[in-house]
């Protein structure tokens, strides 16, 4: 298998926000698609090892913040490469609360999602959720995963569905 | 709900190739993500009304051709806006056969997929499949759904998961 072909698939860059019993938490995701138009539902792949995975299963809701090309790089570093088990990721990030979920105010759009189904694989959960609210926040070009790799020269963490060793 | 926020999600553009008992068939898709890295699996949303949907369920295999920005526009017109129930979409398209599945030679990469699970929604099936073979064919920038809408000025058919009325 020529794994370079896998890098030709296109994705966006998102902060997934959810909560445990005490704090907001979340992580970076790229493997996210809309799967139906009526009602609007999405599918999202999150590694079992991500704390966000168990928090979505418990709270049954999450937010999606669409990152733009002008996003503060601190957000990707904070949400992509540290665990919310260790510290409060939202502590030093500008955010607001919409329907009880955290939204990074620096993102270009957000979606509020209610969990309706989970399909398990060996390593990742596929969360299927209905979008109950959404809004464009600012006029910024949505960042693609390709832009993150090729322009920002970003890396993929080991938990990413698209990680290549 | 502000549906403009949904247009901020990023996707690629793909020809999904499969077969019925007599012919190759397929359609354009954008709602496709890699969901696990080991083994490499993907999730793909296809409308129940697409002939490709029932052919994937019957044949349990399909190819993914990644369309690049320099793709022949005839391919998008043929695979995106006509039904394979009516005619042989591959008849006037340059393709080769890999592992018994059709690959548009004009695409920039391909993946061969074996169906492992289907999750149903009201309007679309979410196909979960293992990628058994993949290859980069040519050096072309993968086309994003945003490029298709904003540069080529393409439209979405009604069956698309990301269709907005």
Structure in a nutshell:
Chain A is mostly beta strands and 165 residues long.
- With strands numbered from the N-terminus, the spatial order across the biggest sheet of chain A is 2-1-5-8-9-4-3
Span from first to last CA of chain A?
14 Å
Q: What's the total number of strands of chain A? A: 9
> What is the name of the CATH architecture of chain A?
Roll
Which chains share the greatest interface?
A-B, 54 and 54 residues
Stretches of chain A where pLDDT falls below 50 for ≥5 residues? none
Radius of gyration of chain A: 15 Å
The name of the CATH superfamily of chain A reads: Electron Transport, Fmn-binding Protein, Chain A
Number of domains of chain A: 1
Largest sheet of chain A: 7 strands, antiparallel
Average pLDDT taken over every residue of chain A: 93
Q: Helical element count of chain A?
A: 3
CATH fold assignment of chain A = Pnp Oxidase, Chain A
Give the CA-based shape of chain A: globular
CATH first level of chain A: Mainly Beta
Spell the H/E element sequence of chain A. EEEEHEHEEEEH
């Amino acid at each position: 298998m020529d794994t370079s072909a896998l890098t030709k698939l296109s994705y966006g860059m998102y902060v997934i926000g959810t909560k445990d019993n005490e704090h907001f938490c979340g992580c970076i995701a790229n493997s996210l698609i809309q799967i139906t138009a009526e009602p609007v539902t999405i599918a999202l792949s999150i590694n079992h090892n991500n704390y966000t995975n168990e928090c979505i299963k418990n709270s049954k809701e999450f937010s999606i913040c669409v990152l733009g090309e002008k996003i503060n790089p601190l957000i990707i570093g904070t949400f992509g490469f540290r665990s919310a088990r260790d510290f409060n990721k939202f502590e030093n990030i500008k955010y607001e609360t919409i329907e009880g979920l955290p939204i990074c105010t620096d993102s270009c759009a957000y979606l509020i999602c209610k969990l309706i189904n989970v399909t398990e694989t060996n390593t990742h959960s596929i969360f299927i959720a209905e979008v109950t609210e959404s809004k464009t926040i600012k006029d910024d070009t949505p960042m693609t995963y390709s832009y993150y790799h090729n322009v920002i020269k970003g890396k993929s963490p080991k938990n990413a569905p698209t990680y290549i060793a």
